[in-house]
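User: Please predict structures.

Assistant: First:
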Amino acid sequence: MKITRTIAETRDVLRERDDIGLVPTMGAYHDGHLSLFRAARGESETVVASLFVNPVQFGDSADFARYPRDEERDATIADEAGVDVLFAPPLEELYPPGFETWVDVEETSRGLEGEHRPGHFRGVATICLKLFNIVRPRRAYFGQKDAQQVEVVRRMIRDLNLEIGLRVLPTVRDPDGLALSSRNALLGAEERELALALPRALATKDLRKARALLNGLEVDYVEVAPFDPPVLAAAVRIGSTRLIDNVPLDEGGNQ
């Protein structure tokens, strides 16, 4: 696997490559990321992963500062998973001095995460479009766990006529049902036990029951979102850690 740091180097490495699968990431790899790498490896001649903790996705500077970072570990995992190119740029490579152009996917970014994390999806859409322009992938891979993010990227691809296939992989969970997330490592033992109320509530696939099961936790939202497919989505705060999750529904409320 080759690690690239600059846009010019990345484009040069990929210049003669056509069938590229891109997995955009912020690192802290777990089995959820591995499922994306494997899917890309199974469909693509060249697999590219980005490794960049995007500051404009974070509304809280403290949250950005404590986001887990271990490039050496992540690079080893990516290499073993069959990633060909790991694009790990410094901040100034993607946001040079004077940067002022942003992508706003207006309606899809409203509500749910958009309401509680103002500017978050502007950061997501902007960095994804930059990565798409740098890597020129045929396909891009995302996890269902971030359902609203998937919808934002899907709308951007449609609205801007991008020739990119969007692949969405099912949420990967621990045996106890908690969706894999880099933030899970921030939970203490008692906090993790409390966090299990989130997947249990969503597993009911019933909005009223889910709200009842989350009673007593600090809940940002529990809603049915009209995505593709519709999902029952929720976000809760356990101590200083914020967790999101969702389950896909069909029109009748079932997976």
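Second:
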Amino acid sequence: MDHRPAYLTPERFPPPLRIVLRRPGDGLAGIPLTLSRRNFAVVQTHALATTATGFARSAGQPLAYLGLLGPRARKEQVLREVP
């Protein structure tokens, strides 16, 4: 999932991966696939507030793993921002 179409290409993410064009703050709700404990998600943006929103909206989904990319201090900042 990315909001930049130039990065969402089959060459970068070959099938069977699914490419989803949307903003990180939208979270995972409404994505045209069935999420289950077999799915993984990693959240990383360049804006702390957007990362926190994306992480918070993804946290309620049935995922096997939800991760954050970046340094430990940034992770701690993001988690402080999550409601």
